[in-house]
Structure formats: structure tokens, C-alpha cells
UniProtKB/TrEMBL annotation:
GO terms for molecular function: ATP binding; phosphorelay sensor kinase activity. Pfam families: HATPase_c, His_kinase, Response_reg. This is histidine kinase. Keywords: ATP-binding, Kinase, Membrane, Nucleotide-binding, Phosphoprotein, Transferase, Transmembrane, Transmembrane helix, Two-component regulatory system. PANTHER family: HYBRID SIGNAL TRANSDUCTION HISTIDINE KINASE C, TWO-COMPONENT HISTIDINE KINASE. The modification 4-aspartylphosphate is found at residue 735. It catalyses: ATP + protein L-histidine = ADP + protein N-phospho-L-histidine. The chain crosses the membrane at residues 12-33, 213-234, 241-260, 280-298, 310-328, 334-352, 364-386. It comes from the Bacteria. It comes from Lysinibacillus pakistanensis. Residues 439-653, 913-1013 form the Histidine kinase domain.
Length: 1013
């Protein structure tokens, strides 16, 4: 029952709205309709002699006009013969039905008889309607106005069909109106189908002003809405439908202007046919816009199938208007009228039905818009049938725009209320989301770390049997796991920032050290990319005041983002000072970003591209952290040219000293340190500490008792590398963040010469995230301690590494001695067999062989072989003994050549030449049936001694040669084990490797250099 009442009330509302619109139209019509006592022309005479011409009313020159089927000269039209000619007939103006076209040109005539008491200099006005298609008005034989060009032949004729108004002064008691008309453009007769107006100049001006004011009102409304649509498109809603509204509002405006005065098309200089086509297309477009306009407003019936049909019909109509000749267009007007009427009726029916069925209050305004349009269409049809001449009616447009505006405002307020509800719900959901992400991140930490650890252990296992492709895929999986750990960190930090639970621990920090440290932390993600990372921050740049852990996080996120969007090119960091703030610039030559992406950069969970595998929090967290420090973050980017990231941090009150001050400070501290080193005993352990912060060095040094530890401190990686050559250190403690050469890079350099067991390294890091710890281990650290440093933890971890080194020292010595000696069992057996054979053949040779064999065994097992280097003379004695034994065994198959300069006095790694000679004999010359020659060449150079072992044997297989040259000492094969051992010791002691050249079936040359200093 309530539904029925609701429907009835809505129907009643529709009826009342339509009645109100009709009443307003009738009031407008009654105001402009002519009075009932207006005269009518009879037999070509309009007689107003017995009445005064009203000053506030326009007369309609309706009635009988004389028509001549020719263009009669206005000056001779009063000729009696012409006047009473049989060809003259009477036609009632306005003509409702033009009938068949009998003549393409003719003359209309009307004589106006004025009141004899009227003033002789009265000002009058006549308005000629649009005559198809050209007309010319003569008053008392004088041409006073025209539309187009009237002619009796199509060559001279020019159609226009535009109305015009003429103002004139008449001194006679009557006027003779002659109107020439011609039409060679259409199939219709040149008829007057609308009313001709006559009045005083004052009344006509008033009539025209009302018309123009109504037209201006409509024009202003349509222009305002068109501009409003453009502004909405530019600043609010960039969708093509908005531009459709813009064009749609302009089309009715153009139609109204053309209907009022077709002469506005003259500036296009079009022929009448194309002018008519253009006006028809505009009218068609205005109708189509109304259909689409109402479709957009509809909610329930927006996707009705008839709209698609109407779209195709309107498109077909536009095509026909362009292609069809104008004569056919006049014939097809009925079809266009049917299309307009059908589309309007459907749209209005949908709008009213939606209003009746819909429960929202905004739908009433759709009904108002539809009814206003319907009212305008109905009255337009009535005007065309009854030939009303009423000024432009603006109220229909006013109510259409009122309904449209009210609908959108109402929808806006309804949407605003919905948005408020949704915002409250989203805020609640956002809190739940953050809580869920935080708890999920914490729960994912443990399995994620286990996955990364397990994957890394499999990847690093030299005994696994993974194929190369699976090995690379495993590395890729580990990197993905690390990336996910970054994401988990970001989620946790974002949650802390939102809750305000993230606190800073500021201290004086060197920006250079942080930059280079982060550079090395990010090396693993630059694999496969040709990216050069560089810092131009000067060595004397002042210190900053920041939380070291968060500074590293800021740099890590910003640089990680730059690397992600830079496939090849450079990433450069620079810094300068502005207003007591350090301004750090990160410039990259990557993909860059457009304005749309930049506008969303600092929104949570926003990615820079669709393929971005991040979560979109890195930049936002960096911005928040920078702001917590009191700085700002700005980004300027150009697509395909790169990005510039600027952020500021406060300067510290105390500036960082330059490198010269560090050196000076170190020199002044040397005497005290030398005293300690001079008094150390065998139980003292040597520790090298590397940190660019003198305060940290002082604190750490104080933790180790001088009686048990000999500690040396340096403030740069360069100084650490120099100190590394001076002593054999039991432990090196390195800060990860140091300028120019970071702690990570320094560890890598050390690992080129010392293994994990030979030189333990303890890394000091500001962050203890698994990815940071992994980076330290990946570069070669044995263990790590996070800052701020816990004294007990530092001492315990340091002592554990030192004890570990010494606990396996003896085992390493035995293993190293075995690797150096390379005594194979079959070599011993073969040598003893040779001695036994000589005992019955040649006892002298047997005695010499026993002598050299004893020397060889003594030299091989000599404890000095465990030393770092031995004199060249002792090494050559061992080689000589070995070669004597081999020559006795193989006789003519083995030839030895010596090419040694005199007076060479250097130390070399023990059993280094012997290993190379043995390899040349066993794997080179003796592999050939005819044997071969081995040459030992030692040449004295200006700064070095060049040592070479050359053979003309079978050469080295390219696969084995590649393994030897790769420097990989973890190969499981036994081939070349002596060469690898020698190569490893040369690299550790002198920083250089063996140089191997080999050609199959031609021989091998292995050489190395020993520096003299």
C-alpha cells in the first residue's frame, strides 16, 4: 500500500510540474500574441487609415498579397496593364502549404494605407522572415533590404534564407511594399511561410530587444555550463564524457543562434546547400546530445539497448545529411522528425519511469529536466503548425539547466554523505590493515629468515649437484627473499611511524662513511646492470647530526629506488650547505617519472610502475624519517632523463676533521702504542681496529687490556691496508660505514689475501636486520656487533674469533705443509725402486741418488716450510735434488735447462718453484712418449725478479686451464693442486697471481714475479 501511495505521489508530482511549465508557456504566449483587433490585408491592401499605429505593438501583415510570377520592376508595378493582368493572383500570407513548385522566382506586393493624421516623418520598421531562399524588399520603389541575391536564373541566384529588419521614414500616406523572391536551391516554391511584421521603429526595437535578451539568456546559460564542463575536465575528472558535455552545451547554442538569424553563417562563405547541411547537422547534434545527456543522468536505464540503436541512427542521419543532395534532404525531413520524436519519447519515458521507481530524492530533478525538454519540443511543434511568431522562450532552458544543476548538486551531497560513511569505514579498515600487516610481518620474519638461510647454505655448498641453471635460480630465490625482508622492514617501520613509536638516537655522523657503506650494501642488486655509483661529497664536508641507523635506512631506500629504475648509467651523490643544513642530492640517469607518478610518490602503497614488485613504502618512510630529523625531501624527475632527489639534514655543531688531522692524531699516539708493542709477550694478541670515529676507537681500545692485547687503531681503510702488511694480525675490527672505501669494500680487499680462518674480521654495523648482516657475511666478515656497542659482547665475540683461529692453527700448519710438500706415495716407491735397481748396476749412481733423495726429504719436511718465505737458494737446492732424482728415474726422457742470473738474493714462498717444476714434469713432458725439456728461468729486473718454469710437454686442457686461471681454490678435482697452492700463497703475500700460458701439444709456461722491496 505504501508503495502504491509513493508511486501515486510521484506521478502527481510529474503532472504538477508539467502543468506549471505549460502555464508559464501560456503566460509568455499571451504576452506576445497580437491583439484580436489587428487588421488583415485584403486584395493586396493593408488598410490602417482609421486607426493609429500602436507604439507598443507589432502588426502582422497577414492576409491577401498580390503575387506576380515574375520579377516585376518596383517602379513600373503600378502600370494599369500590369496591375490587372490575368497572371496576377492573390496569396494568403503566411502560406502554410507551398504546393508544387511552378515558378522559381516571383514578386509579392502589398500596399499599406496609413492614417492621414499620422506625422509625415514617422519612423517605421518591417521585419521580413526567412524566405526560401532569397528575397529583396523594395519600399516605394527603393531597395531597403535583402537576403541572398534574387535572380531569374540559377547562375545569378544566391540563396541565404535569413530574416532581416529594415528601419525607414515615410512621408506619404501609403507605402508600396514589393518583395522579390527566388529559389533555385530546393524543390519548394519561393513562398513566405512566416509572418511579416510591421510597426513603428520604437515597437520593433522593443520587440527585437526582448527576443535578443531571451536569446542572450539562453546563450549565457549554455556557455556557462560549457565552461564549467571544461573546468571539470581540466581539474577534476579527465574523462571523454566531460568533453561530450562541453560540445553538447555548445550545439544547442549554435542551433538557437542559427534559428534566430541564419546570416551568422555568412562568415563561413558557404553555398546555401552546405549552409543548410551544416545547420541540419548542428540540429541533429543538439538532439543527439540531449539523448546522451539524459542517458548520463539516468542510473537504472543507462545501458538500455535502445540507446545503442539511437547512436547508430543519429550517426547514419549525420552521414545522410552530408552525402544527400539538398532536394532529397527536404524530402527526408519527415524521417529525421520521426528519429527526434522517438528518441525524445524514449528518453523522457525512461527518466519519468526512473523517477517513479527510484527512491532517491535526486531523481526528481531528472524528471524536471525531461519534462522541460518535452515541453519545449511540444511547443516548438505547435509553433511550426500554427505559424506563431513568438520571441525565443528561455524558460525551458532555464528549467533544464536548473534540473541538471540541482541533480548534480543533490548527487554531490548524497555522495558526500556516502563518502563520509565510507571514509569512516576506510579509516577503521586502515587501522585493521596496519594491525594485520604489522602482526603478519612479525610472524613472517622467522620463516623468511629460515628460508634465506637454508637457501644460502645450499647455494654455498660446493658439494651440491645442482645444474648451472638451478644454481642461478636458487640465487634468484635468495634475492627475492631478501627483497621480501626489505618489505617486511618497511611495513614495521611504517606502522611505528603512524603510531609515533619510532624514536631517534642522534649523534655526530660522517655522511661520507654512510654513503660509501650503503654503496657496498647495494652492490648485490646492481648485478646485471651497467650502473656506476659515485660520490662527490668532499672529504672536508661537515658532520651531520642524525640517527646512524635511520640515516643508513634513508640512503638505502633512496639509492635502492634509483637503482631499481636505472638499467644503465650513473648514480651520483653530492652535497652542499644551505642555511645551516646539509643538502644531499642523489642524481640518477634512469627512467625518470612523469607528473602523474610524482604526484603519487609519497602515498602509501603506491608503486612507480605497474611492474614494480615493491610495496610502495620506501620513499614515504624516508620522507617521514627525514622530517623527524628536521629536514625535507623533494624529488624532481623528467621521463627518460632521470631523477634528482634532494633531502636536507641538520649539521652538527662539531665539524669532522680532515684527513691530515687524523694522520697527525695517529702520529702523536704512536709512541705510546710502540711502548706497548715493545713490551708484548708471546701471549699477547694483535688487534687492528678501523673506524673513522676517534671517539669510538678510544672507547673500543679501552676495553682490551694492554697486557693481553696489542691494539692498533687507524681511521681509514687506506691506513688499514698499509697496517695489514706490517704485522700478522689475530683480529681486525672494522666499522661498516667509512668514507671512500667502506668497511664492506675493505673486507673484500682483505679476503683477496687472507681466508676466513687466516684472518678473523669482526664487523661493526648500525643495523641488525638480517639483510644487513647477510651483506656483511657475503663480503667476508666472520662475525658482527651492532652499534651502540655493548662492551661485554664486543670482548666476548673478539676473543671467540681469536681462540677459533689459534685452536685450528696447528691443523692448518699440518695441512699447509702437506699441500706444500705434495709428496705422492708412488713418487717415494718409484724412487726406492730406482735405488734398488742401481744397487746391482751402478753403486756410485746409487750413492748419489741416495744423497739427493735424503736432501729432498729433509728439505720437504723442514719446519721452515711453514714460514711465510725462505731464501731463493734453499728453494733451488730442493728443486735441484728433486730434478736429480727424476733424471735418474727417466734418463733421456727428461732434459733440464737452467737460465738463472747471478747475484740474485731474494726470499720466495717455500716449495713454490718445486711445485711448478713437478707439475711440468708429471703433467707435461712425461705425458709424451719421447719425453721433453723443462727450463727453470730466473731473471733479475729493476724492481722485481721474474721466475718462469717452461716445458714443451702436452700442454693443459682448456677446461682445466680456465679453472686454474679463475682462482677458485674450492675445486674438488686433484689436478693442479700444487699450482693452486702456490697461486693462493702468492696472492696472499704479494697481491698477484701466477701467469699461465699453455697450448695443447706445444707446452706450458708458468711465471710469477717477486717484488724486491
Amino acid at each position: 500500500m505504501s508503495l502504491f501511495k509513493n508511486t501515486a505521489s510521484r506521478v502527481l508530482t510529474i503532472v504538477l510540474i508539467f502543468i506549471a511549465l505549460t502555464i508559464l508557456r501560456l503566460l509568455w504566449l499571451s504576452y506576445f500574441l497580437p491583439s484580436s483587433n489587428q487588421p488583415v490585408a485584403h486584395e493586396g491592401i493593408f488598410d490602417i487609415r482609421h486607426q493609429q499605429l500602436p507604439e507598443d505593438e507589432v502588426l502582422h501583415l497577414n492576409g491577401e498579397w498580390l503575387y506576380y510570377p515574375d520579377l516585376v520592376d518596383p517602379l513600373t508595378i503600378n502600370d494599369r496593364t500590369l496591375t490587372y493582368s490575368s497572371s496576377v493572383n492573390r496569396q494568403t500570407i503566411p502560406i502554410k502549404d507551398a504546393g508544387k513548385k511552378a515558378q522559381s522566382y516571383g514578386t509579392y506586393r502589398l500596399k499599406i494605407q496609413l492614417n492621414t493624421n499620422a506625422a509625415k516623418d514617422n519612423h517605421y520598421a518591417i521585419r521580413i522572415p526567412a524566405v526560401s531562399t532569397a528575397s529583396a524588399l523594395y519600399i516605394n520603389g527603393k531597395l531597403v533590404g535583402q537576403s541572398g541575391k534574387v535572380a531569374s536564373n540559377p547562375q545569378s541566384h544566391r540563396g541565404q534564407a535569413a530574416p532581416y529588419t529594415v528601419y525607414f521614414t515615410n512621408e506619404q500616406s501609403e507605402m508600396d511594399l514589393v518583395l522579390h523572391v527566388s529559389n533555385f536551391d530546393t524543390s519548394e516554391s519561393p513562398t513566405i511561410s512566416k509572418r511579416v511584421l510591421f510597426s513603428s521603429a520604437t515597437a520593433m526595437i522593443h520587440h527585437q530587444q526582448v527576443t535578443k535578451l531571451s536569446l542572450a539568456t539562453i546563450s549565457i546559460m549554455l556557455i556557462i555550463f560549457a565552461l564549467f564542463s571544461i573546468l571539470v575536465f581540466l581539474f577534476i575528472y579527465r574523462k571523454p564524457i566531460v568533453l561530450l558535455f562541453t560540445v553538447g552545451f555548445l550545439l544547442p547554442l549554435a542551433d538557437e543562434l542559427i534559428t534566430f538569424d541564419r546570416s551568422i553563417l555568412d562568415w563561413l562563405h558557404l553555398e546555401y546547400a552546405w549552409s543548410f547541411k551544416l545547420s541540419s547537422v548542428i540540429y541533429l547534434g543538439a538532439s543527439f546530445f540531449f539523448v546522451q545527456f539524459m542517458r548520463v543522468l539516468l542510473v537504472k536505464y543507462r545501458y538500455a539497448k535502445c540507446f545503442q540503436l539511437f547512436f547508430h541512427l543519429y550517426a547514419l542521419g549525420a552521414l545522410l545529411i552530408v552525402l544527400l543532395p539538398i532536394k532529397w534532404l527536404y524530402i527526408s525531413n519527415l524521417l529525421f522528425f520521426i528519429l527526434y520524436a522517438a528518441s525524445f519519447l524514449f528518453v523522457v519515458a525512461f527518466a519519468l519511469r526512473e523517477y517513479i521507481e527510484n527512491q532517491t530524492q535526486s531523481s526528481v530533478f531528472i524528471a524536471l529536466t525531461a519534462l522541460s525538454t518535452t515541453n519545449g519540443v511540444i511547443w516548438g511543434l505547435i509553433k511550426s503548425i500554427y505559424v506563431f511568431d513568438i520571441p525565443v522562450y528561455p524558460l525551458d532552458y532555464l528549467f533544464i539547466m536548473l534540473g541538471f544543476s540541482s541533480y548534480w548538486f543533490k548527487r554531490f551531497f548524497e555522495n558526500t554523505e556516502q563518502i563520509k560513511v565510507l571514509v569512516a569505514k576506510l579509516q577503521k579498515d586502515d587501522e585493521l590493515k596496519d594491525e594485520f600487516l604489522s602482526s603478519s610481518s612479525q610472524k613472517l620474519w622467522d620463516p623468511m629468515n629460515k628460508m634465506i638461510t637454508l637457501g644460502q647454505s645450499i647455494y654455498d655448498n660446493p658439494n651440491n649437484k645442482l645444474v648451472a641453471e638451478d644454481h642461478e635460480n636458487l640465487k634468484y630465490l635468495i634475492d627475492i627473499g631478501r627483497s621480501m625482508s626489505f618489505t617486511l622492514n618497511d611495513i614495521l617501520d611504517y606502522t611505528r611511524l603512524k603510531e609515533g613509536n619510532l624514536h631517534l638516537h642522534k649523534k655526530v655522523i660522517s655522511i661520507q662513511g654512510a654513503v660509501y657503506g650503503v654503496f657496498d650494501m647495494l652492490r648485490f642488486i646492481t648485478n646485471g646492470k651497467q650502473i656506476h655509483m659515485n660520490s662527490t661529497i668532499s672529504q672536508s664536508f661537515p658532520n651531520i647530526l642524525a640517527d646512524e641507523k635511520r640515516l643508513i635506512q634513508i640512503l638505502f631506500n633512496l639509492l635502492h629506488n634509483a637503482i631499481k629504475y636505472t638499467d644503465a648509467g650513473s648514480i651520483e651523490i653530492s652535497a652542499h650547505i644551505e642555511k645551516n643544513m646539509a643538502v644531499i642530492l642523489i642524481h640518477d640517469t634512469g627512467l625518470g617519472m612523469d607528473d602523474s607518478i610524482q604526484s603519487r610518490l609519497f602515498s602509501p602503497y603506491e608503486q612507480g610502475s605497474e611492474n614494480d614488485d615493491g610495496i610502495g613504502l620506501g620513499l614515504l618512510i624516508s620522507k617521514k624519517l627525514i622530517e623527524l630529523h628536521g629536514g625535507t625531501l623533494k624529488i624532481h624527475s623528467i621521463p627518460n632523463k632521470g631523477s634528482d632527489v634532494y633531502f636536507t639534514l641538520p649539521l652538527a655543531m662539531e665539524n669532522v676533521k680532515d684527513q691530515h688531522n687524523y694522520l697527525k692524531h695517529e702520529i702523536t699516539a704512536v709512541p705510546a702504542e710502540e711502548k706497548i708493542l715493545a713490551s708484548i709477550t708471546e701471549k699477547q694478541f694483535k688487534i687492528l681496529m678501523v673506524d673513522d670515529d676517534l671517539v669510538n676507537l678510544t672507547i673500543m681500545r679501552s676495553l682490551f687490556a694492554p697486557t693481553e692485547y696489542a691494539v692498533k687503531t687507524v681511521t681509514s681503510s687506506e691506513m688499514a691496508l698499509a697496517a695489514l702488511k706490517d704485522n700478522d694480525w689475530d683480529l681486525v675490527i672494522i666499522d661498516a660505514m667509512m668514507p671512500y672505501i667502506s668497511g664492506y669494500a675493505l673486507i673484500e680487499m682483505m679476503r683477496e689475501h687472507y681466508s676466513l680462518l687466516e684472518l678473523p674480521i669482526l664487523l661493526l654495523t648500525a643495523r641488525k636486520y638480517p639483510e644487513d648482516v647477510y651483506i656483511g657475511f657475503a663480503h667476508g666478515a666472520n662475525d658482527y656487533v651492532t652499534k651502540p656497542i655493548n662492551a661485554l659482547e664486543l670482548k666476548v665475540r673478539s676473543r671467540a674469533l681469536i681462540d677459533l683461529k689459534y685452536s685450528i692453527h696447528q691443523q692448518l700448519q699440518l695441512e699447509t705443509a702437506w699441500l706444500q710438500a705434495q709428496i705422492q706415495p708412488h713418487f717415494l716407491f718409484n724412487t726406492l725402486n730406482t735405488i734398488a735397481s742401481l744397487s746391482t748396476i751402478d753403486t756410485d749412481r746409487m750413492i748419489n741418488l741416495l744423497h739427493h733423495f735424503g736432501e729432498y726429504l729433509h728439505a720437504s719436511f723442514d719446519v721452515r716450510n711453514l714460514q711465510r718465505v725462505v731464501p731463493l737458494k734453499e728453494e733451488l737446492e730442493l728443486v735441484n735434488s728433486y730434478l736429480y732424482i727424476e733424471q735418474q728415474r727417466f734418463g733421456q726422457l727428461l732434459h733440464i735447462e737452467w737460465d738463472i742470473d747471478n747475484h740474485i738474493n731474494i726470499d720466495i714462498p717455500p716449495i713454490s718453484i718445486q711445485n711448478l717444476v713437478e707439475n711440468a714434469i708429471r703433467h707435461g713432458v712425461l705425458k709424451q712418449e719421447k719425453g721433453g725439456t723443462v727450463c727453470i728461468r730466473i731473471k733479475d729486473g729493476p724492481d722485481f725478479v721474474a721466475i718462469s718454469v717452461i716445458d714443451n710437454g702436452v700442454g693443459i686442457d682448456p677446461t682445466i686451464l680456465h679453472e686454474l686461471q679463475s682462482g677458485n681454490d674450492n675445486k674438488s678435482t686433484n689436478s693442479g693442486i700444487g699450482i693452486r697452492n702456490t697461486d693462493l700463497r702468492l696472492k696472499r703475500i704479494y697481491g698477484q697471481r701466477l701467469h699461465i700460458e699453455s697450448t695443447l701439444n706445444k707446452g706450458t709456461t708458468i711465471s710469477f714475479r717477486i717484488p724486491k722491496n
